[in-house]
Amino acid sequence: MARSRIAIIGTGLIGTSIGLGLAARKEREFEIIGVDRDRNHVREAKRLGAIDREAGSLEEALENTGLVILAVPVIAARKILQDAPPYLSPGAIVTDTCSTKADILRWAAEFLPESVHFVGGHPMAGREKSGPAGAALDLFRNATWAITPSPRADEKAVGVVLGLIESLGAVPLYIDPAEHDTYAAAVSHLPILISVALFRMVRDSQGWEDASLLSGPAFRDLTRLASGDPTMSRDIMTTNREAILHWLGRLQTELQTVRKALELGGEPINDLFTSTQFDRDTFIANPPMRRRPEGPEAPSSQDAIGRLFVGGLYDKLKDVTTRTPTTSPRDEAELRRKLGIEDDGRTR
Amino acid sequence: MARSRIAIIGTGLIGTSIGLGLAARKEREFEIIGVDRDRNHVREAKRLGAIDREAGSLEEALENTGLVILAVPVIAARKILQDAPPYLSPGAIVTDTCSTKADILRWAAEFLPESVHFVGGHPMAGREKSGPAGAALDLFRNATWAITPSPRADEKAVGVVLGLIESLGAVPLYIDPAEHDTYAAAVSHLPILISVALFRMVRDSQGWEDASLLSGPAFRDLTRLASGDPTMSRDIMTTNREAILHWLGRLQTELQTVRKALELGGEPINDLFTSTQFDRDTFIANPPMRRRPEGPEAPSSQDAIGRLFVGGLYDKLKDVTTRTPTTSPRDEAELRRKLGIEDDGRTR
């Protein structure tokens, strides 16, 4: 029974939603323990049934715990990785849900003992409302969940995290941490800045009162990310600045192109809207394939977490996921070249 | 029975949703007739129960019709206003749902006979999916519906359109057409360009395949408007170009400020996220007041449309809405000054 415990460090929107999903498992054999710097958050998570028990300290949360889930902003995760080693059991599996992955993998390698398995993760999910009050059992249903195992993590550890992901209804996507950060900057981090800029633009204008009266779902949807947790956003910008600046530059160029089309009027702007509608509708109707593990050898989501506590190993793990884990970062120069980033970080 | 007919010209997302709302009225005394350049759209609207009958021509749709709803892109509406006069009954009420209001008011004054009452309208509602297939009975529930009566429209006509708005569960907002276009450019039209620019930026990059695999709700929500009807978007840009260019310039400035904060790091970016989260949460929690008509004299949404056909007049109409209709455009110079637009259209 020594390892039949899962700890959720950080019971905000993501941590509490994970807890709700784990707690809903039938005949579960593990205890869910939660801890949060904000006592109100952990109490709320307990009240919602997302955790069984509140830990009074990091030590209490980590002691005899088989699976540790760091669901905190990335800079806070660094501190926890620094502080955790004395309390972690040998063989413990540590995963996270942070929005950037390269730094956290580096810190895990730097601070965690070799006996601990770190498997990075990032669920591509969110809600307008942050904190445990926004949590939901189905937050991760069909969401992509990026998975970035450390080179030291063994297959069992990767299998447990895969099981966690699958049991929450999400779809795992193996990706190299540097690639993750580059692309997340485009589809997830830059959008935060867009939401913030659009909201500030209208809010700080003299027409705010009238404009806000007139605003509807378009303004609400496009500024949603401006209501995200500011610490999380700040940490994203701190740990992924270069890539975000790269995409911000591209967006600025794109807006300048749109401006020219608008000034010209007629065909250019018509073509822009027509081709973009076509491309986006195609993307929405046929989203890129994220195949679930399949075949007789595949772990089922029912078994995956359970095996954590019976010591089972997954065979042929690499066969059952769409991509093999990249254990060493790809050639960064190649990635930069692919993206058109010059060595000084500017866009070509 | 001569006037117990409502015509919906254009059975796309908005027109079909209006039809669904009208058709759901209990004990309705009117027929709903629909027409669309796209025969598939009007057949789909009929199949969904949004219209009772398909008209084969504009003439057939307008003949003996008391209320005409133009739910088409704004340039198409111009053509209909030009073609309609021979078929419109004296006393007919014409309203529209177009995204820009100044031009349509001008065209209504230019083309419609004095015996016809034009009351402009713009529901602030939308969905990812355009066309009748995206239509929904509750599309307008609690949505702001801008209302811009022409100076010639009488109180009864305004009352009927108010009744239409209220019976669909929306909240009317009186606004001057020029003001509408200026603020809609900020909260509704510029967001279309942002969605298009963000989608194109990622779609046209070499990393599209990986980035799209990783994309989640943030990318989906922020690019939603790129799936809007391209003709509608083009017409918006054509009829409201100056205001949209103004706000696009402001957004470009705002993004440059965000870039500087990001390059500096630390406090500036932290302050930006913290203050913006606070301001947006405040806006969402306490949206600006759009009071519904109240008091014993107020028309109820049950009665409003019904009275169209019994010839009732609303008394004290101006008392029951939050703003009195502005029958003459506000001093444009004042508006431009308020917004910081110089006479050459540039931002100060």
**First-last Cα distance of chain A:** 57 Å
Give the structural class of chain A: alpha/beta
CATH top level assignment of the largest domain in chain A: Alpha Beta
Number of helices of chain A: 14
Q: What profile does the largest beta sheet of chain A have? A: 8 strands, mixed
Order of helices and strands of chain A: EHEHEHEHEHEEHEHHHHHHHH
Number of domains as seen in the coordinates of chain A: 2
Write up what this structure looks like.
- 2 copies of one chain form a homodimer.
- Chain A has 348 residues and is of the alpha/beta class.
- The first copy, chain A, folds into 2 domains: 5-177 and 290-329, NAD(P)-binding Rossmann-like Domain (Rossmann fold); 180-287 and 334-338, 6-phosphogluconate dehydrogenase C-terminal like domain (6-phosphogluconate dehydrogenase C-terminal fold).
- Chain A contains 14 helices and 8 strands.
- Chain A has helices spanning 13-23, 39-47, 58-62, 74-83, 102-111, 155-167, 177-203, 208-214, 217-222, 230-239, 241-264, 267-285, 301-306, 332-338, and strands spanning 5-9, 31-35, 53-54, 67-70, 93-96, 117-123, 144-149, 171-174.
- An 8-stranded mixed β-sheet of chain A has the order 3-2-1-4-5-6-7-8, with helices on both faces.
- In chain A, helix 6 (155-167) links the parallel strand 7 (144-149) and strand 8 (171-174).
- In chain A, helix 7 crosses helix 11 and helix 11 (241-264) crosses helix 12.
- Chain A is globular.
- The model of chain A is unreliable at 292-302, 309-331 and 341-348 (pLDDT under 50).
- Chains A and B meet through helix 7, helix 8, helix 9, helix 10 and helix 11 of A and helix 7, helix 8, helix 9, helix 10 and helix 11 of B.
